[in-house]
Write a structure and sequence with these properties.
The complex is a heterodimer of chains A (258) and B (394). Chain A is 47% helix and 14% strand. Chain A has 258 residues and is an alpha/beta fold. Chain A has one domain (3-256): TIM Barrel. The model of chain A has no long low-confidence stretch (mean pLDDT 96). With 394 residues, chain B is of the alpha/beta class. Chain B has 16 helices and 14 strands. In chain B, the strands form three sheets. In chain B, strands 3-4-14-9-10-13 form a six-stranded mixed sheet, with helices on both faces. In chain B, a hairpin with a 1-residue loop joins strand 11 (273-277) and strand 12 (279-284). The N and C termini of chain B lie far apart (53 Å). The model of chain B has no long low-confidence stretch (mean pLDDT 96). Classes of the chains: A alpha/beta (258), B alpha/beta (394). The A-B interface holds A 49-51, 53-54, 56-57, 60, 64, 67, 72-73, 97-103, 123-129, 131, 146-153, 155, 159, 170, 173-175 and B 1-3, 11-21, 159-160, 165-166, 169, 172-173, 176-179, 274-279, 284, 286, 288-292.
């Protein structure tokens, strides 16, 4: 069983996202461990990209801060290495195709395998383009996490049938970022997924409060939170660890009690 | 491999949220492409509203002065709204209307595509919002006001480099936010399939006319056709119906800014590398880790770090050539054409004029070449004056 399955083995999963290199590589490693300690079941590490077209303002700015701080793909691998010296928490990358393409698929996924990165989420790699890298990723035991959107309709089952690791269910139209309301019919999306696969499905985009996280985890296998965490890091910079722990504890309690 | 490939280039590298919309767009486009009523309406708009066919003008003084091949100018600058952009926009906005959309959004660099989209939206009764880099809204303030006059809402994009690439990012984000009633009128032969194909088809009217016009005027095909290239829409339009004519050289002129040996250029073909961005696999100006590079050109319309996938294919298959042209050369050609032929062309188009000045004198007098004059230069006059250190007040 891959480490991603471990994240969902104990019940509903709380998945935390942060951008690598914001505010620094050392701090990113420290914050991953802090969030694990507070109860995060899986961490998504964002490899910064100059033009993150699926992100809202909060994560866009984190990408810019990380790149201005000279974070690179190799720098992100160093962060993973540092984390893996102390932790076996399931880790997945979240980035855009171009940085992976440029690194070279073989070199990139070999490094993921060696360092223990369990999966990757690439918003600009839809189902139709997956074969771009699916064989190489599979050879190195890295799951390509597929996304399902509110507009996916008849595509839901096509995508779900081939799913690896977990399914990332996008809660809302548009880009990442905190929202007051989530209006998509998540229940019917999940039931459509359940007809064809047992692969866990976690919901992301727009979740920031324990109430929202609980509501989403109630109807799925977990909740994914990015912008709200990145906002804490933006606010507290090098001293965000305690606030992150407090926030993650609250959120995972809401998710785990479902 | 997915649809919309030109060799290894192209594809549909876009978020899942937009995939069904792209599939729908392709289906609807294929349907209306064969629909006689749609084609009749489009032709009527192009001819009676935009002023097509555009002239193929024999530039006699320029020919005489350069002393080589006969030079013809394909006058897209004479179209309504002042550039080739209207060809694509009328097609796409009409298509969007047939698809039941009530709102169009668009990115714009120099403002030509934004103005054209705002124009078509006004004419066809659609709501219109245009995204434009903050730096470009400053460089092209007059075009911002034009769009507003036409009833469009203009958003100044303050993220990233605040130019065309960031305007595309912002428009893509807005489209994924509101897709059910909204069509994204992409302005160049770029982005995810089916956009490179749709934009090429709508722009191919340029070479369809030019090929016929040159045969009527000269009784033979040109030795070369030239066009400036940013994303590459006027060039694709100028090349398309000549692709099968193997003896016609296809020459794209890209923006070398302050020189391709500096870091201030937008010369994707000369200096770019293979990558995946804005929905397509193609060549991009980028660093060793695949971060998209800031690019520079005096021309806001060529100030883009990528190039359409069909151009990448035409170059790598040896069918088309791409030449870098610096700011200085373009400005000199801009002034040259004004003085020699009495035509103030867009600074974008001046890149093609500049390269023609280099090659025409070396060609025989029995040969002819066509330069696509993609737009008129009114919008650039103030910027050129600034470049030359002339202080003018509008």
């Amino acid at each position: 069983m891959s480490k991603i399955a471990d994240a969902f083995a104990k019940g509903k999963a709380f998945i935390a996202f942060l951008t690598a290199g914001d505010p620094s590589g050392e701090k990113t490693a420290e914050y991953i461990l802090a969030m694990e300690e507070a109860g995060a079941d899986l961490v998504e590490i964002g490899i910064p990209f100059s033009d993150p077209t699926a992100e809202g303002v909060v994560i866009q700015e984190a990408n810019i801060r990380a790149l201005n701080g000279k974070m690179t793909t190799d720098g992100v691998f160093d962060i993973v290495k540092a984390v893996r010296e102390k932790s076996q928490i399931p880790l997945v990358f979240m980035t855009y195709l171009n940085p992976v393409f440029h690194y070279g698929y073989e070199a990139f996924f070999r490094k993921c395998e060696t360092l223990g990165v369990d999966g990757i989420i690439i918003p600009d790699l839809p189902y139709e383009e997956k074969e771009e890298m699916s064989d190489i990723a599979e050879k190195h035991g890295v799951d390509i996490i597929s996304m399902i959107a509110p507009t996916s309709r008849q595509r839901i089952q096509t995508i779900a049938k081939d799913a690896k690791g977990f399914l990332y269910v996008v809660s809302s139209m548009g880009v990442t970022g905190v929202r007051n309301n989530i209006e998509t019919d998540i229940v019917s999306m999940i039931s459509s997924i359940r007809e064809v696969t047992d692969t866990p499905a976690a919901v992301g985009f727009g979740i920031s409060t324990p109430k929202q996280a609980g509501a989403m985890a109630e109807v799925s296998d977990g909740a994914i939170v990015g912008s709200a965490i990145v906002k804490i890091i933006e606010t507290y910079g090098d001293d965000a660890a305690e606030d992150l722990k407090t926030y993650v504890t609250e959120m995972k309690n809401a998710v785990h009690s479902c | 491999m997915s649809k919309g490939r030109y060799g290894e280039f192209g594809g549909q590298y876009i978020s899942e949220t937009l995939m069904n919309e792209l599939i729908q767009l392709e289906e609807q486009y294929e349907y209306y492409k064969k629909d006689a009523e749609f084609q009749r309406e489009l032709k009527q708009l192009l001819n009676e509203y935009a002023g097509r066919p555009s002239l193929l003008y024999y530039a006699g003084k320029m020919t005489e002065e350069l002393g080589g091949a006969k030079i013809y100018l394909k006058r897209e600058d004479l179209n309504h709204t002042g550039s080739h952009k209207i060809n694509n926009v009328l097609g796409q906005v009409l298509l969007a209307k047939k698809m039941g959309k009530t709102r169009v959004i668009a990115e714009t660099g120099a403002g030509q595509h934004g103005v054209a989209t705002a124009t078509a939206a006004a004419l066809l009764g659609m709501e219109c919002e245009v995204f434009m880099g903050k730096e470009d809204t400053d460089r092209q303030a007059l075009n911002v006001y034009r769009m507003e006059l036409l009833g469009a809402k203009v958003h100044a994009v303050t993220t990233g480099t605040q130019t065309l690439k960031d305007a595309v990012n912002a428009t893509m984000r807005e489209w994924s936010n509101r897709v059910s009633d909204t069509h994204y009128v992409l302005g160049s032969v770029m982005g995810p399939h089916p956009f490179p194909m749709i934009v090429r088809d709508f722009q191919s009217v340029i070479s369809q006319e030019a090929r016929q016009q040159i045969l009527e005027a000269e009784g033979k095909l040109p030795s070369a056709v030239l066009a400036c290239v940013g994303g590459g829409s006027n060039a694709m339009g100028m090349f398309y119906h000549f692709i099968e004519d193997e003896n016609v050289r296809l020459i794209g002129c890209e923006a070398a800014g302050r020189g391709i040996d500096t870091d201030q250029h937008a010369a994707t073909m000369a200096k770019g590398t293979l990558g995946v961005f804005h929905g397509m696999k193609s060549y991009f100006c980028q660093d060793a880790y695949g971060q998209i590079a800031p690019v520079y050109s005096i021309s806001a319309g060529l100030d883009y770090p990528g190039i359409g996938p069909e151009h990448a294919y035409l170059r790598d298959s040896g069918r088309a050539e791409y030449e870098p042209v610096t700011d200085d050369e373009a400005v000199e050609a801009f002034e040259y054409l004004a003085r020699t032929e009495g035509i103030i062309c867009a600074i974008e188009s001046a890149h093609a004029v500049a390269h023609a000045r280099k090659i025409a004198p070396k060609m025989g007098k029995d040969e002819n070449i066509i330069i696509c004059l993609s737009g008129r230069g009114d919008k650039d006059v103030a910027a050129i004056a600034r470049y030359k250190g002339v202080d003018i007040h509008e």
